[in-house]
Every structure is written in C-alpha cells, then in structure tokens.
Amino acid sequence: MNLALQSPQPKPPSTQRVEERRACESAGLAARALSIAEDATVQAFAVDGAVVLRGLLTPAELEVLRQGIDANLAAPSPRALVASQPEDPGFFIEDFCNWTDNEHYRRLIFDSALAAVASRLMQSRTARLYHDHMLTKEPGTRQPTPWHQDQPYYNVDGTQNVSFWIPVDPVSRAATLEFAAGTHRGPWLMPRTFMTNEARWFPAGTLAELPDIEAGRHAQPPTHRILGWALEPGDAVAFHMLTLHASGGVEPGRRRRVFSVRFLGDDMRHAPRPWKTSPDFPGLAEELPADAPMEHPLFPLLWGAQP
C-alpha cells in the first residue's frame, strides 16, 4: 500500500488567512516605526534634513545585514568602485544596486521596518525602494568623503525621499557622517567627482557651486549648523537626498562597513538625464517616461498602496 498517496495533503493557506497575516505583520512594523521615528524625530527631519535613529535594527536584522555586506565584499558586482587613492594606507570600496542578487540585503529591506520608518520620515503615504549602496572603509583609510548632495547625481526629482546610513561596526564621532542642517531646502549644488573634482554631470554654470562648509564651520557665527553622531551597530542616520553631508577617514584598527538604502515617497518622479547617473539604470528611460512616478520592477513599492 502506498501510504504517501493516502496521506492527507496540507491545504494551502486561504486568501483570507494570508491577508490577515500580512495585516498583522504590517501593524507590527507600523508600531515599530512609530517607536523609532516619533513625532519629534519626524519634525526634526523636516527641519534639519538629517536625524539619528538609535536601535533602528534588531540584533537579528543586524546579523543579516553583516552577512550581506561580507558576501558583497567577497564578490563585488560590476558596479563596484574603488573610491580611495592607490597610496592610501586603507581601502575604500562602494557597490550599488545589489538587492536583487544579495538575499541578505533583500531580507533586510523587505522584512524590516525600514520602509515604514521611511514613510513616516518622508510624511508620505508610500515608500518605494530606490536603491542600495554599500560603503566600506578599511582600517586606516584616509580618503574623506567630501561635502556633497546626493540627489543631483540621481535620475529623480521631488522632495519626499530619505536615505538610511547604517553601520555594522562602531563609528566614532570623528569618522561618522556629518550634515549641514537645513540644506535639504536647496538650492541644488553642482555634483563633482570625489577624487578629481570634475563636473561630469550638469553642465558648468547650470547649478550653484558648493560653499566652503569647512571654512564656515569655524566662522563666527558658523555659516551652518553641523550635525553628527557617534554610532553603535544597529543605530543609523537618516537624511534627505539634498542634505549636504561628508565624512572623514577611519582610524587605524577600526573598520567602517556601512549599508545605505534609499526610499522614494509620493511626489518623486523619473528625471532621465542625458548623462550617466550614479548609480546608472541602463534602459530605464526607454521604459519609464520623464516625470512619471517610479512605478517599475526596479523600484518595488514596500509600504502603503498606490492611490
């Protein structure tokens, strides 16, 4: 007798049960997002364009992310860039857009409260994944990350956006990401290459040049209020894509592995450029018209529903 044929087969969960489970999961993520991004934090993000989020990741989520970064470092994608000079005693590497291939990144982005927190900070009904970005500075790296805005390098327009900068190693105040408070309100500033200071994107003269933030830091009174926080693994900073930011190198003996993930809100639109953006999305301009919402499989909707 073939018992396997006579054994009752498990029934697939009903649509109602699946929807109930998803609703329960969403409620849990919403509650966690509310505890992380309280009303005062949301208001600070609107005013300053950058906030610190203590304990953004749980220990389990942090371990998933650490595994994802290590897997990424072991096998960088063709999009990876070395961002330090050959004579630098350390090593700075960046990599982009790996969530489709890196299961650890995907689990973190899709299963954590990141999208729900993004929705609150952006004051947006929805939160759509834009892209991921890994940045690792090995011990003793001297290469700084100069002052810049992110959005001029991108192919999007709009105001509802947020980037999370999440270290899996302790980050000192000296090595952390710093922000010039309030600069997310504009204007857009000329994007330049980090190591050679070339204007490879917008034509010269079309955008204002970057002010001397470092000189302004020591002026009386300072020209900008500079924000920055020492971080422990699981902490993060969240910032608007137009907020001016920069960081220094890292101390000898201290490694700085960071994962950045970026979200788009309700008002963000596709802005094709006649040049290669950073990161680049080859072929997207043929599939998504200019000024269209970012409704494309490359940018999944992770929180809320389309109106």
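^ that was protein a. below is b, sequence first then the tokens
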Amino acid sequence: MHMKKKLTSMLTASMALALVVSGCSSPKESDPKTASSPAAETKGNSPVEITFWNMFGGGEGDFVDQIIKGFNDSQKEVTVKRLRLESNEYYAKLGTALSSSKGPDVAVAHVDRISPFVKAKQIVPVDQLAAKVGFDLKQISDSNLKSVTYDGKPYAIPLDTHFHMFYYNKDLLKKADLLNDDGTPKLGDMTPEGFKKMLAQIHAKVPDVQALAVNTPYFQEPFLNMYYEAGGDLLNADLNKAAINNDKALSVLKFYLDLYNNKYSDLNDKTPWDSFHSGKAALWFGGVWEAGPLLNDKSLNIGAMPLPAIFGDQTHWASSHLLVVPSYVTPEKQEAAAKFMKYFSEVGGKTWGQAGHVPANSKVTSSEEYLKLPYRNFFIEAQKTVKFAPKTDKYTTIITTVSEVLQNIIFSKQTPEEGLKNMEKQINDILAN
C-alpha cells in the first residue's frame, strides 16, 4: 500500500510533465477560473445542471468559456458549470473522483490517459449516448475515433488532434538567403545531413540567433517526432516489451546532439518557445496550440508547414483532447452530458479550432470558417499522418521514464547507447509489473 502511495505522489509530480507532453498547458497559464460548486439536483422544468472538469487556462480557457456560454444560451434543458483544475494536479484529482464515484459529470482527458479508466470500467462508452441525442459519430475523423476505441466501442468524444508544426521566421530566413519569393523556406535536401546544411547556413549568416530552437525542456516531443518519422515505435505490437533500443533511436539522438554541439541549437535554452516567438531563433518545431500568438500577429512574419520528413516519413507524434463521462453519472445527467458533447464537437469546434488544435469533427475542418484561418490547410494535411500513444494503461509511467532518460542523454550524463539500453530495461520493468 505504502509503495503505491509513494508511486502516486511520484506520478503526480510527473503529471505536470505529462501534460506538457500533451501540449496542453501553455507556458503562460492565466489565473484559474473556478466555477461555483454545483447546486443540488434540480427537479421539474428547470434545466439539468452538470459539472464539467478541465485544465484549460490562458487563451484556451477563454475559448472554452465561450463554448460553454454558447451552449448554455442555446437551449434551456442543460446548464454546464465549469470547474478548472490546475494542470499539474488534474489527473490525480480526476483519478480520485473516478475511483470514489464523486466528481464531474463530464470531463476532459487526453487520449493517452484513458486506458486505465477504460480498464477499470470508470468511464462509459459513448456510442449509445451519441445516438440518443442525434450525434453522428461518423463526423469524427477515423484516426480520432480509432484512438478512443476499445473492444469495438468508443469510450470518449475526441475534440481535436494536437501535434507539432514546422514554424519559420521569414525575416531571419531572408537574411540567411533561405526564403523563396513566395515566402516559403528553401528546404533543400530533406535528410538529416541536408537539414543540418540548412541550419549551418543560418548559423553562418545570422550568427546571433539559434538556427533551430529545440524543445529541450520537453525533449521527448522533438525526439518522438523524428523517431516516428524514422519508423520507430515505443513498444512492440503486443505492447508488452520496449521497442526503443535500436539504430533509429540512436540516429535521431545523434542528430540532435550534433545540433547542440554545432551551436545550431542552444542546449541551455529553458524557454525555446519564447526564443522563437521573440525572434531569437529562425526555426521551431512548435505545437499547433501556439498558432494563435505566432500566426495571428502579422508583424512577427512567421509561417508554418508540416514537419519536414527529415528521417524519411511524415509520421509524427500527436495527442488529443477528449470528453469522457464517468460511470457513476446518473442516466439523466449522462444524456445532458451527451447534449453538451454534441454541441462542443459540432458548434464549439469552430471556436476551438481558433486555439490551433485541429478539430476532430470533419464538418468543422471542412467549413469555410475554419479554412480561412491562417495555414490551416497545412494543419489538416499534417493531421493525416499522426501517431498516437500506444494504448497501454502504463503509458504515463513509461513516457515519464523516457523523458527522464532523454534528459540524461542530451546533458551528457549518459551516452546515447547507454541511455537507450537503460530506457529499454526500465520500460520492460514497468510493463512486467
């Protein structure tokens, strides 16, 4: 028991990390807005009140507030009350709520977090609920729907996909003679060597900036992007063994170590997202959730495109926000939650798309409204080649281990070879227990 407690507190410490892995809490979170506690159940003709838990702050939080207000104003049957929890404690609290049967009526979760909830039967399948409120799940993109399907049933409503784009600073590329007349970058040969050549040219011609800011604080993200491009997997097909100690992982690690060693990227940059935003880096593999600040401000002169296939393939890391309904929720409130989920997907998706996340509802992504947002045609293209986390209930522990070992490798506490061996052993231990 005590061992478990200790593990839980260790996990809670790594939640903050896991959340940024999923690119959710923006580096600049605003103050939490907490709703008042829900009133006792209402009877008669008054609306059914449901509590909605999520971790969205900052700009994302403002969009969620708009969506909830829109829903509450659009009908008289259901009222949604929002409770925002701090992202670093979100999953600890949600886990407790689900196991004690007291908490939200509908909640946000990441796609890589629901396996344990499905396994413990703590959340309900959503197919019949959707049918009840006339919500056609065929609107949801295949990859999104597949990502939440266990034993043939969908256990969540996917709201979006989020992943990384290749952002570039046009002014800095122009100085480096790497900008085409149409404002796109001159990429040259897209291989690790070809990409390094491009960075060398930026480094030579604009020496006072980083050629490529690398997300060193959350290095698992840039690592997985290139490792997935190289055709790598975290686990084997049966999800019972690590599949990470191989030449593909090694070549990706050596590629990034070269960038640091050649000073194309600054190993000690603790806020690379700010460095790029403030013009101190020419290139950046950044989240779609950064699209608002980066692309809406024309004075920054930033462009975006899908990550180049440096390691041979377009496949790249992704996560997704979902809505889930706990098993303890009464049938009346489950139906109310379904009405809200339908609205969030079909109508709110247009608002949510402004946050940068690519909406999971294909009606939204094919709408004129969405497509007139800057560079969104590229976002949709990049969404087609995403790779979600393996569906194991040990994923949080595994990705935490991966992150910690990667830090040791890039800060030269271990060689890439030792690190990968160590990672493999630790992952296999997690899976065996």
